[in-house]
Amino acid sequence: MPSTTIHFIRHGKVENPDHLLYERLPGFHLSDLGRRMAEATADYAAADPQLSDVVAVYSSPLDRTRETAGIILDALNKVRAERGEEPLELQTDSRIIEAGNEFRGKRIGYGEGALWRNGNWHLVCNLWKPSWGESYQHIAARVGDFAQEKVREYAGKQIIAVSHESPIWSYRHLLETGHPEHNMFLRHTALASVTSITYDSETGKMLSISYADPAKDVR
């Protein structure tokens, strides 16, 4: 059975000394630790027979994902050069961008964080259905649309998509349970982790999901 695999990779840690919820705001880049996380995952990808054989690398258009993807691309292109193959170039897709959030630009959990300000309680009344922003259904639907398009486009191949925790987990949860709603505190999508989803190339049906955390020991 021909299959297509999309390796969804979460970005590394972000430089955020003011502890803001950065959401889709520009200007939030990887920290030194975040770059080391991305480098650990890049080394993992370059050494893995499947990941090193990907034919395309996609990223959310945000700074932190493009920087993570760039580090991974550098490692993969070294392997490709050794094999006499042309280098891959980064492609961006807004369907795998971070979830929309009404708390963008606000401090969360430090001092008078946004969660505790008068008038904001209605935004956090239900952890399973994010009343504070974009619904899990919409998040999973747009990621699913991206995935199904790429399964057809790259039938029988493997690609990488560098994204964010909420999009990766919401989509994975939909595939595993039939619904995208979940408790945000129970996600398993570590920074710079790899969630690999394999599909039947003809039907687009999910065949398997695997998970790796190459940066777990990075300090």
From TrEMBL:
Entry-linked Gene3D superfamilies: Phosphoglycerate mutase-like
Molecular function (Gene Ontology), one example: phosphatase activity
GO CC annotations on file: cytoplasm
Protein name in UniProt: Histidine phosphatase family protein
Organism: Bifidobacterium thermophilum
